[in-house]
Amino acid sequence: MEIPGKGISGMAIASNYTMAIINRNTIRRRNTARDRQSPGRRMKQPERTRQSAPQKKNSFIPKPRPGEIRTLILGGVSEIGKNMYAVEYNDSIVVFECGTMFGESTTPGISTIMPNIEYLKERKQSVRALVVSDASMAHIGAIPHAIRDIGNPTVYCRTLTKAVIERYQETVRRAPTPSFYEVKKSETVKIADDILLHFFGISDETPGTLGIIMETESGCVAYTDGMRVKNTNGVVEPKEEERFKVLREKEVVLSIAGSVNAERPGFSMSDKEIAEKITHILKEAPNRTFLPLFPSQIQRNGLILEAALKLGKKIFVQSVFLLKNLETACDLGLISIPKEAIIPIDELQNESDGSNDLIVLGAAENEEYDMLEKMSQEAYSHTSVMKEDTMIFPSPVIPTNARSTQNLKDRLSRLGAIIQSYDTSDVKASIHAGKDELHWIHQRANPKYFIPVQGYHYMLTAHTHILRDIGMSPDSCVIPENGSIIDISQDNKIIKRQKQRLSVSPVSVDGHTPTLVHDVVVQDRKTLAQEGILIVVVFINQKKLELRKSPDILSRGFIYLRESRDLIARIRLVIKKVTEKEAQEHGKVDIDTMKKAIQKEAQNFLVNETNKKPIIIPVIFT
Hints:
This protein is α/β, with parallel strands linked by helices. It is globular. The protein folds into 3 domains: 11-51 and 518-621, Ubiquitin-like (UB roll); 69-266 and 432-511, Metallo-beta-lactamase, Chain A, CATH 3.60.15; 271-425, Metallo-hydrolase/oxidoreductase (Rossmann fold, 3-Layer(aba) Sandwich), CATH 3.40.50.10710. It contains 20 helices and 30 strands.
């Protein structure tokens, strides 16, 4: 970048200017991957270019043949959250879920991610329905950002889910108002001449959950993600047969089901049992209690909070989404606690007489860990850890998070907290069906083919083993990846994953606007996190073709300047030599050529001296 003018000098001016460039996100690295690598460790640039180019169009993917059942995996596979699947039949598409997830280590700097819906946008005239089976963000979070782009289809959901979506829509600027169809009982709805939707599994005990059978002339597709079976110590209650009888009555060609707990033996614990165990912990807690709750588990939350009030607890809620869900449940009469008893955490006072407080955290997508992490580092504004505070970790730890979770527990323990973990307290508060539960459901559906969704790959694999236990051939199970296109032939004789794939480049939701995240941007952020950035500020005289002063160096996340004076002095010398050499060889100041030369020589020098490759940003003043 050239800034003409005279008398510009001083580190403060250069620093302010260059850091403003960074803050406005206007830094563009013009150096190639070859320039950034040392000569002995170069990468193949053409291959990276192909990866980073967005797959914007899916037009090359042909429509399914007449009578074929096509399944589209838009998100929710090899990850937790961001659920979105679709079934395409003739000229109609039915979408299941439209969720988001928190950013991961693979997407640094991105707080929320939604599925890539490019395929649906190009075929929005065919989208007949959006069915939502749960009221959590993993199922509804992308609706305000996606529904207009996919043709504003009718949203089919339970009353609670509708109320939660409407409240969430209010928080997103210019969000369109969806058209809803409230599913209040087991019923059948015709959405196209050749498609019926059967809703089943409706229960007041799970006011946001429902099962769906999509009936076509080629057979039925059963979608049962998030459904649990009511049981007592593993014995299924008789009325569950009535809830799931439609699965026996229909010819289920394809079953699509969630897999999060597929490797965990047994049935999920009933809400009543979970509430009883947590109530016991609340009674025994010597000081305050911190308890994560899943926003969509209304009945369970109602039982726990009702018990807490009977124990004289004062309830403070940390998560805005959880707070809104609880208030909505109170308004709908789904839980029997006074609305005024649910207090936002902003009103929590860190006083010695608050020993009977219950502080409720949102547990969606490990949300509770964010607050506990801040508290463990004594960086949370509303409160801090007190001696003998009880911290309940009611969910099983995902293996990839095991180390960080253990470190978190250690830090909380050092601050005096009492840890009640999943393993020690037996509070198995998962919202997903266990292995035996899934076995029970699949026996009733008896599908010909099966596609597991929602969960990491090992969870999907474990889920297919359940189907094999009931006699399904391994060839009849297809373990998908995000972007998979899976077709079942019209005569139901073949299930095949297509070679073509949907575009699955991540889409970030920053503020109110979805933005496609290119691979090269993610790679830059990883480099910044791992290697840091070095900004080189050069002042050059265009007439004399030499530097006016020694180059200024700014480092962020690379080295500490005060302790690296010798290294900085040698970097300045390298930059001075290469800058003046380039200017004198060309007889003028060629900004682009000079930047590339500075980047290359500085990169080679730093690799040799430090074995690190920070992003180098030259800023040239003339």
